Amino acid sequence: MSIFRRPDYTSETTQFIEQLKEKRPTLEAEQLAGRALLWEPKVDRSAQEEYREGRVAQNPYVYQTNNK
C-alpha cells in the first residue's frame, strides 16, 4: 500500500447516482433511447437525393445581377 493513497471517498452526488442506478437498472437504456429521439433523427435518403438534384449552382460573385 502506498503512503500517498487516500482513503476511499465518494461524493454525495456519486452516491446519489449509484443509488438511482440500483433502484432503476433500466435508467441508462432509457437515457440512450431519449437521446436517440432528439439527437439521432432518421435520415430520408430519397429526400436527400432529391434536394441534391434540385440544387442550383451559385454564381461566383453572389451580388452580381447580370450573368455576362
Verbal overview:
The chain has helices at residues 12-23, 27-39, 45-53. By secondary structure, the protein is mainly α. It has a domain at 12-53. The longest helix has 13 residues, at 27-39.
Strand and helix layout:
Layout: H1 12-23, H2 27-39, H3 45-53
Please give a quick description of this structure:
This protein has 3 helices and no strands.
Strand count, sense and closure of the main sheet?
A: none
Q: Count every beta strand, where a strand is a DSSP E run of 2 or more residues.
A: 0
Structural class: mainly alpha
Q: Helix content range of the residues, please?
A: 40-55%
Q: End-to-end distance, in Å?
A: 82 Å
Query: SSE string, helix = H, strand = E?
Result: HHH
Query: Per the principal axes of the C-alpha atoms, what is the gross shape?
Result: elongated
Average pLDDT level: 86
Number of helices: 3
Supply Rg. Answer: 27 Å
Uncertain ranges: none
Strand composition percent: under 5%
Summarize this structure as a short list of keywords or feature phrases.
single chain, 68 residues, mainly alpha, 3 helices, 0% strand, elongated
